[in-house]
Write a structure and sequence with these properties.
34% helix, five-stranded antiparallel β-sheet, Beta-Lactamase, two-stranded antiparallel sheet, alpha+beta
Length: 163
């Protein structure tokens, strides 16, 4: 399993703000950027929810979260991955939520950090390997192992005959 793209979108907490695509890895072209924005951060998105949509040959999985601001309202962000259609989104939901929760708990969740470490996060998710962000360890290997053991249970072998 592997993601093909990682996309970060933002809705600023100030009046009259609009969703914007702030970063993607690997980079999307301009036409694709405007198309994928509405898939990654649809109108009416709420903090804490997952959005699953289709875009071309991909399934778009987005996790909506907030980053606290000292002025105005909190900014809403969308961390999205574009998956192959055969991949199971249930595996990636706890991975995205876990990543955001760990960064937030350690007080380092910010737009700058997400953009700076987007490639590292992308590679960690794709290769299911542990990463280190600002001296905070994200144990992707164990997260994936735990999730897969729950979700991808082996099918029992059937014995006997059927009429």
């Amino acid at each position: 399993m592997a993601t093909d793209y990682s996309v970060i979108c933002k809705l600023g907490g100030y009046v009259d703000s609009n969703p914007e695509l702030i970063s993607s890895y690997p980079s999307l072209d301009t036409a694709a950027s405007s198309e994928v924005l509405s898939k990654c951060f649809p109108i009416g998105s709420k903090y804490g929810e997952f959005i699953v949509d289709k875009y071309r040959k991909y399934v778009v999985l987005s996790y909506i979260f907030r980053v606290s601001q000292s002025a105005d309202r909190d900014d809403l962000f969308s961390l999205s991955v574009l998956l192959n259609k055969r991949d199971k989104t249930e595996i990636y939901k706890p991975v995205l939520k876990g990543l955001v929760d760990i960064l937030d708990t350690n007080g380092i969740l910010s737009q700058e950090l997400l953009m700076e470490y987007q490639k590292t996060i992308f590679e960690g998710i794709n290769q299911e390997k542990d990463i280190n962000i600002e001296n905070v360890s994200i144990d992707f290997s164990n997260i994936f192992k735990e999730i897969k053991s729950k979700i991808l249970k082996q099918k029992p072998k059937l014995k006997g005959s059927f009429l």
